[in-house]
Design brief:
Elements (H helix, E strand, L loop, with lengths): L1 H11 L21 H12 L2 H15 L3 H25 L6 H8 L2 H33 L3 H9 L13 H16 L1 H26 L34 H12 L7 H5 L7 H30 L10 H8 L5 H21 L1 H11 L18 H17 L2 H27 L6 H5 L21 H31 L5 H23 L16 H15 L3 H25 L1 H21 L1
Length: 595
């Protein structure tokens, strides 16, 4: 029984390996430059976040402190981004977080992340299509909404009020563009992103001439007593919904940054991935952070937060300051920006499907590459149809909630993967065989006897990282529980919280003392282990802030995934075949030697 469990554990934690020669060989077309990747990243990020999320968070959740919400979300994204950048230089393959986790943590965790990335990209594309449809509808006085509500109603609380045929059509049209080829899609994205950036610059420049500092310090008496709505209008000031509102807003604003991992997903199609991936990720996150903060400042200084229209924040804001003509200029930017975001949401989906299918963890026929177009055509079609179906029946709010958990889990696993990778023994067999023998093992926690990673030090670090993640999860749960129960000042809560804080500090210190690998790449995550640990901690906190309904949907999706992996992926894994072949060859060699 023990040997069976050990074999089962070894199988589900097997790691994907690449040799140096095959790492850069791909059936996909390597044609993207640093400029292409950066514009793809910016284009996929500055869409729904700019024109939809900003207004929603400022109006309903954070007020003027939406700026801080975006800053917190930006920090979380940047911390994850530098971890993505390091792995992008080490394993420049399609699949992004899925591939990174496979090579460093193991197969089962890679499948979990890959399966969630599929959900993330499908929902991301569907929500962007819904947002584009809603914005276009607002420019034509909601003619589509009225028509679809009458002729295509969906009589269920689970789904949207009506079937959005326009959003479904958008997904299918973008899918056709992606089938043609990634270079052609990138050119189209560049044009749309340029138009979007021009409009955003114009909005910020003109908006700055209409700002009023008083809108950041509205007194509670000035907030109107609105009785005919179901939402809370807050208490005025810079934090009308309190610090909790700002943090809750950060969880939503985080959705606005998810486009940057598109850069990592297309690593197998970039010309010089070691240089292009980290450079493009950093540029994307810096530019988008600046733009989100700029538009948040302008919009909340132009209009009192409680008067913002979350569905059409910019047109209504300029109408409020007596510049209604800007409605059509902003509309052009919004439509091109959200379309570029839709393109960026659908583009990585077939790459992730291709990577997982090529490894045999889902049905292998999905990984077929068209010989002339050099695109994963079956994966592209399946991804487009799935996104179109989701856009047809779900509304924007439900879609955004459903995708957040998969994104945050992917970011956390990439950060954990960086920690595992940095503390692994180097390739030198002599160094790998060295094990500390001076004194008890507990002394190795803070005073390692070797300067290079060893098998023992790697095992110690693995246990420390596991305890660190578990401790951080409990720490975040305690904080959220205390804030909801208003028990933060109770002595028992303070003592328990302090104990876990001290444990977290001890664990981080112990990890930092362990010897790290000196094997360098073009880009390395700075301040390891502190940056990855902080990334995991922030992501864990944001995950626990999600609604119970989100966890239920996540559970259903994971059950479906585990069934596919259990009945197909576990048995058809390419790495399983490689490991079995190596085991047979090593067994044959041993027999020959003994004979």
């Amino acid at each position: 029984m023990t040997s069976f469990l050990q074999r089962f554990y070894d199988n589900i934690t097997r790691k994907k390996t690449y040799d140096t020669d095959s790492l850069h060989i791909s059936q996909l077309r390597r044609c993207l430059t640093v400029f292409d990747l950066t514009i793809l990243g910016i284009g996929s990020t500055l869409g729904t976040g700019t024109y939809i999320i900003t207004g929603q968070v400022a109006h309903e959740t954070a007020g003027p402190s939406v700026i801080l919400s975006f800053l917190i979300a930006a920090i979380a994204s940047i911390l994850a981004g530098v971890c993505y950048a390091e792995f992008g230089t080490r394993a420049p393959r399609a699949g992004s977080a899925y591939t990174y986790t496979y090579v460093s943590v193991g197969e089962i965790m890679a499948f979990i992340i890959g399966w969630n990335m599929i959900l993330e990209y499908v929902i991301g594309a569907a929500s962007t299509a819904r947002a584009l449809s809603a914005y276009f509808d607002s420019l034509i006085d909601f003619v589509m909404k009225d028509y679809f509500t009458i002729h295509f109603p969906l009589h269920s609380e689970t789904f949207a009020p009506y079937a959005d045929l326009f959003a479904m059509t958008l997904c299918l049209v973008v899918t056709m563009f992606l089938i043609v080829g990634i270079k052609e899609s990138a050119v189209l994205n560049n044009v749309f992103t340029f138009v979007n950036l021009t409009v955003i610059a114009l909005v910020v420049a003109v908006g700055l001439t209409k700002v009023h500092g008083h809108n950041w310090k509205i007194s509670p008496k000035e907030v109107p007593n609105i009785t005919n709505v179901t939402y809370n209008v807050g208490k005025g000031g810079f934090f009308p919904f309190g610090i909790e509102g700002t943090l809750a807003g950060a969880a939503t604003c985080f959705y606005a940054f998810v486009g940057f991992d598109l850069v990592a997903t297309t690593g197998e199609e970039s010309k010089n991935p070691q240089r292009a991936i980290p450079t493009s990720i950093c540029f994307t996150l810096i530019v988008c952070s600046i733009i989100y903060c700029a538009i948040s400042i302008v919009i909340t200084l132009m209009v009192p937060y409680y008067l913002l229209n979350p569905d059409a924040v910019f047109p209504e804001a300029f109408r409020y300051v007596q510049l209604p003509a800007f409605k059509y200029i902003i509309g052009a930017g919004a439509l091109t920006g959200i379309f570029a975001s839709l393109l960026g949401s659908l583009l990585p989906l077939p790459r992730v499907l291709y990577a997982i299918a090529a490894d045999g963890l889902i049905f292998r026929f999905i990984s077929w590459i068209h010989p002339r177009l050099q695109t994963p055509i079956i994966a592209t079609i399946l991804g487009g149809i799935a996104a179109a179906f989701m856009a047809l029946i779900f509304d924007l709010k439900k879609l955004v909630e459903m995708m957040s958990i998969g994104t945050l889990l992917a970011y956390s696993l990439v950060s954990i993967s960086v920690l595992f990778l940095r503390y692994q023994p180097v390739d030198d067999p002599l160094l790998r065989s060295i094990t500390p023998v001076s004194g008890p093992i507990y002394k190795e926690l803070f005073r390692p006897s070797q300067t290079h990673p060893t098998v023992l030090s790697a095992r110690i670090t693995k246990y420390l990282i596991t305890l660190l993640v578990l401790n951080g999860f409990i720490l975040c749960a305690i904080q959220i529980f205390a804030s909801h129960r208003l028990a933060a000042k109770e002595s028992g809560i303070i003592i328990i919280f302090s104990i876990f804080i001290i444990a977290e500090i001890i664990l981080v210190t112990a990890i930092a003392r362990q010897p790290k690998s000196e094997k360098s790449s073009y880009f390395e995550t700075p301040l390891v282990p502190y940056v990855p640990v902080l990334s995991v901690f922030i992501n864990t906190y944001l995950i626990l802030k999600l609604s119970p309904a989100t966890w239920i949907r996540f559970g259903v999706w994971m059950i479906i995934g585990f069934l596919i992996y259990g009945f197909y992926g576990f048995w058809h894994s390419s790495q399983r075949f490689i490991n079995d072949t190596q085991r047979l060859l090593s067994g044959s060699s041993s027999s020959l030697i003994s004979s």
